[in-house]
Design brief:
The structure is a homodimer.
Chain A (H helix, E strand, L loop, with lengths): L2 H18 L4 E3 L13 E5 L2 E10 L3 E4 L1 H14 L2 E8 L3 E6 L4 E2 L4 E4 H6 L4 H4 L8
Parallel strand pairs in A: 3-5
Antiparallel strand pairs in A: 1-2, 2-3, 4-8, 5-6, 7-8
């Protein structure tokens, strides 16, 4: 399986998890092919739109480019959405970092598995609070 | 160009039109590949999410299946969105029909070019009112 397919499969897994707690979610099509900012996933909780830029990592650290972060913030601002960088660490599951909690490096941003584990930024603690109430 | 590519190009054109009036819009990825309801396009106006099921027609009538309409309504209800069937009639441009304004046939629904022209359901009259104010 190539890298793109793996990314899509990871995104689909997150969409399943969101629908699983009653939050409608969709995957955004080929954001690369148009010039506009766009997230990878959009989800709809009660009166709160959530947007996710999704990454996967087999290492314990994931670097995120300024461009990725900036376009996510731009889209969030234009749509009044709550933005998260969602990182799936291999065998550790998904973690969710708000853009203003990202750690800046010289060149870009970094998300460290140790820190997101310590801060308990997993699905249960960050996303489940948005669980949709009927 | 095959039918799928034509459909995608038409959707991209509508996304350009929406961004052109300041409304952020995205194309939803391969709705067919997951079991959940989903629209083709999601757009974000002031406090109003708009969702579109997109169709193209070279004829003066376009039939829309019950399944397409029902899953659009389901998604709209779950996300408090405003739903439109968007039909691009060749050389006539886009028209936007609310789901409860669709005309029921024996088997499905139909959108007629004559009627949408008469009712002036074009972009200018139906969508431009959502134009985003900063």
């Amino acid at each position: 399986m190539n890298r793109k397919s793996k990314g899509i499969n990871a995104e689909r897994e997150l969409i399943h998890q969101l629908w699983g707690i009653g939050i409608p979610a969709v995957r955004v099509a080929g954001s690369g092919s148009m010039k506009y900012p766009s997230p990878d996933i959009i989800a709809f909780s009660n009166n709160q739109t959530l947007i996710f830029e999704c990454k996967a990592s087999i290492e314990n650290k994931k670097y995120i480019s300024n461009a990725d972060v900036n376009q996510l913030i731009e889209f969030a601002n234009k749509t009044n959405s709550k933005a998260y960088i969602a990182v799936k660490f291999t065998n550790k599951g998904w973690f969710f970092v708000e853009t203003n909690d990202l750690i800046k490096t010289k060149e870009n941003y970094v998300i460290s598995l140790d820190i997101v584990k310590e801060k308990k930024l997993d699905f249960q603690n960050t996303i489940k609070k948005y669980k949709k109430l009927d």
